[in-house]
Write a structure and sequence with these properties.
Blueprint: H1 14-17, H2 21-49, H3 53-74, E1 82-83, H4 86-101, H5 107-129, H6 132-135, H7 141-158, H8 173-176, H9 178-196, H10 202-220, H11 246-249, H12 254-283, H13 289-305, E2 312-313, H14 315-323, H15 330-344, H16 354-368, H17 372-378, H18 383-398, H19 401-422, E3 426-431, H20 443-452, E4 456-465, H21 470-481, E5 486-497, H22 499-514, E6 518-522, H23 534-541, E7 551-553, H24 556-570, H25 595-604, E8 606-610, E9 615-617, E10 622-623, E11 626-641, E12 644-651, E13 656-657, H26 659-663, E14 666-667, E15 671-683, H27 685-689, H28 693-726
Parallel strand pairs: 4-5, 5-6, 6-7
Antiparallel strand pairs: 1-2, 3-4, 8-15, 9-15, 10-14, 11-12, 11-13, 11-15
Length: 728
């Protein structure tokens, strides 16, 4: 279709859907990086279970093939390669060692591994199809960093036994050091070679160097290398025990397996999505988190049923694949290569020293450690995050990964609560002298409000009102609660409130009423225990109690207007009702003119009678007239959307509007909307020009003077509003 947008997230470009040369090269390069890591992790896991290293190498390859195949077929993350990785394998190892300590071994241990992997895959799949990919993002990063770092340390510690060289003890300490030397050469090459040739994968460089040094040492050794030093020929695929005895399933410790699978599914999902973000950064694409998790879940389950081990996205092989040109089909190409290795290159395991693979695992473990935690601990702003991460690491090393997760989540929750407690609750506190309502006031009313405006206290709250913050809020408001004031609490920025916050409001209302004041609420949201009518909520909290009168308003301006009206009434200057009529002679502009002059100007003004909901003038409509309200009410509104507006002023009898266009005819910058049936008088330039020159001179000064004062007040209000909004 002509003009069709390319690059849609749902319908990728047809060129990106085809297998390219970059996919082939990327898949091959990624396989070369993932191969030693997958085999090494499989060997480490199976050795901890008491099985042959070759069986572990096969399990690692099976897991890599299954994960990359299903993830690649969905195309949920462009360029990402999946294979066994450190976090998943380490957690599996801890669980299986725990089961071994309980007496489980042999086929029962393999069956437990199958059950864990299948349930992990099922849970991941459910996370994907239910939108759980978004929930994973709520796990605090310090917890993830601490957990991954603890896993890295465990990986390093788990490989030290493979470097002991006890099997050559009879030939002397020198030959016992061969595994350790092989590991050091592997690590050294992994670190140094990429500095000389940045495009060369570090794991491949280290593995080649380590294998070479090992076999050179064995050429001059007085005895052949022990079988335990080598992976050995990888078993054929048909040797994998696929038959599951249903009777044995009931004897498994399901409480351990279920907890392990749940923890593993969350850990694998987090690690996978972190790798997906890395891939997105390099390719410029956007991964589909839910589809990726569903595909990974299928891969985990299939890998488990085939006797393999699980994993997820691997950052090193993913980056290599992308740098080599791999995109849509790189993961599938990588999976096919793993399958070919399983079928045709099984004897290659005879040449692979376990110590070199152990060094690869140590290198991956070092890379997993989040060294930035040390930087967090030095900075006061991030020190507590560093402490949480450190707690997770220590707990993981001292106990297990599951305990580390629990400690991390609890620590993150406490950290969140602390930040909420110390966060300021009062965002703004001003009095009626500093902030007025948008309602029109006469000169006398404005003077009284300026003199006695401190009897109106406006407070804007923010954050969460709960047991950790209400006491501090009460202490900060006590000076105002002990005075006869109208206290307005703006609740717009309050995110939530618990029963402690509601009980605090009850105490505040009673205290304020005892001192002759009144509590007013505005912008109360419907969330948690909050609702729009605060007095109803307070009655529900304590039905039998005698509570003072509480008023709730939809807007702050309405609350300010109510408080001002109450204050003016107390001061003996009750505002005029909109039903009252204020003749032109009583307005502030014309009350000082001679009767003859007032009569002359009134004779040329045009009367208007408008019903409620009619418009005097609309936004962007050309105008040059000034309007005087004799009776009724008009609001000045600034349209923001089709059915939304910002109220700029509320005008009653005796007021006027339309000043800017009267001074300089132009398009209107607002809409004048009638909210109560109104009687108006219109004064435009044509009216002024029709007057005698003498009358014009007499009228011009009072009109311009009042218009200028009005515009000055509007400008001052606008500046205060901009300043208030800028604080957010």
């Amino acid at each position: 279709m002509t003009g069709r947008i390319r690059g849609s997230l749902n319908e990728p470009d047809s060129k990106e859907s085809r297998l390219t040369k970059g996919d082939l090269l990327g898949g091959i390069a990624a396989s070369a990086v993932a191969l030693p890591q997958s085999m090494g992790l499989g060997v480490a896991l199976f050795l901890s279970m008491g099985f042959d290293a070759s069986a572990g190498a096969l399990a690692g390859l099976v897991g890599a093939a299954a994960l990359s195949l299903f993830s690649g077929l969905t195309g949920a993350t462009t360029g990402m390669i999946s294979a066994p990785n450190g976090p998943v394998t380490t957690l599996l190892s801890v669980t299986l060692v725990t089961l071994g300590a309980q007496g489980m071994q042999g086929d029962a241990m393999l069956l437990a591994l199958v059950a864990i992997m299948f349930l992990t895959g099922l849970l991941q799949f459910l996370l994907g199809i239910t939108g759980g990919g978004q929930l994973i993002k709520f796990i605090p990063y310090p917890v993830v960093a601490g957990l991954v770092s603890g896993i890295g340390v465990l990986m390093i510690m788990s490989q030290l036994q493979a470097l002991s060289g006890e099997e050559m003890k009879a030939l002397g300490a020198g030959w016992m050091a061969v595994p350790a030397v092989t590991a050091l050469v592997t690590l050294g090459a992994s670190v140094l070679v990429p500095r000389i040739a940045p495009s060369f994968p570090p794991i491949i460089a280290g593995l080649v160097a380590g294998v070479a040094v090992f076999h050179l040492a064995m050429i001059v050794a007085p005895a052949p290398a022990p079988e335990s030093w080598l992976v050995g020929a990888i078993p054929s695929f048909d040797t994998i025990p696929l038959d599951i005895d249903a009777s044995q399933l009931f004897s498994l410790p399901w409480h351990v397996i279920l907890v392990s699978a749940l923890t593993l599914s969350v850990l694998a999902s987090v690690d996978c999505l972190l790798t997906a973000v890395v891939a997105d950064d390099k390719t410029g694409a956007r991964h589909n988190a839910d589809r990726e998790l569903a595909a990974q879940g299928i891969g985990q389950a299939v890998a488990g049923l085939l006797g393999g081990i699980g994993g997820g996205g691997t950052k090193a092989s993913t980056l290599v694949a992308i740098k080599t040109g791999g995109r849509r089909w790189a993961a599938v190409v990588s999976a096919l290569i793993f399958i070919l290795l399983i079928l045709f290159l099984r004897p290659a395991g005879n040449a692979l020293p376990i110590s070199a693979l152990a060094a690869v695992i140590i290198y991956v473990g070092i890379d997993l450690v989040e060294w930035n935690i040390l930087h967090w601990l030095r900075k006061s702003t991030t020190r507590l995050d560093g402490v949480v991460a450190l707690m997770v690491i220590v707990t993981t090393l001292a106990f297990n990964l599951i305990a580390g997760v629990v400690v991390g989540v609890v620590g993150a929750v406490l950290l969140f609560v602390r930040r909420q407690v110390i966060a300021p609750i009062i965002h703004e506190r001003v009095t009626g002298k500093e902030r007025h309502s948008l309602c029109y006031r006469t000169e006398k009313e404005r003077r009284l409000l300026d003199e006695h405006g401190d009897r109106i206290v406006y407070i804007e709250l923010r954050g969460n009102l709960f047991f950790g913050t209400v006491d501090r809020l009460f202490a900060e408001l006590i000076p105002d609660l002990n005075q006869p004031v109208w206290m307005i609490l703006n609740m717009r920025r309050v995110q939530s409130m618990d029963m402690s916050g509601l009980n605090l409001f009850k105490q505040m209302i009673k205290r304020l009423d005892a001192h002759g004041g009144q509590m007013l609420y505005s912008n109360v949201r419907r969330s948690g225990v909050m609702e729009r009518k605060m007095h109803k909520l307070l009655r529900w909290l304590e039905p039998e109690a005698e509570l003072p009168k509480v008023k709730t308003f939809k807007s702050t301006d309405a609350a300010l207007e109510f408080a001002e009206n109450e204050l003016l009434t107390r001061l003996g200057c009750a505002p005029a009702s909109t039903a009252q009529r204020v003749e032109l002679e009583q307005s502030e502009i014309f009350q000082h003119l001679r009767p003859k002059t007032r009569a002359a100007i009134k004779a040329v003004m045009r009367p208007l009678s408008l019903r409620r909901k009619q418009i005097v003038y609309a936004y962007e409509e050309f105008g040059d007239a000034l309007y005087f309200i004799l009776q009724g009410e008009v609001e000045i509104r600034l349209p923001t959307r089709v059915y939304h507006y910002k109220r700029l002023a509320k005008l009653g009898p005796g007021s006027f509007f339309g000043e800017d266009a009267f001074l300089e005819p132009a398009a209107r910058t607002s809409t004048a909307f009638v909210t109560r049936d109104a009687e108006l008088l219109m004064l435009d330039r044509e009216c002024i020009e029709s007057l005698e020159e003498k009358v014009q001179r007499e009228v011009r000064w009072p009109v311009l003077n009042e218009v200028a004062h009005s515009l000055a007040r509007q400008l001052r209000w606008t500046q205060l509003e901009l300043r208030r909004l800028e604080r957010w």
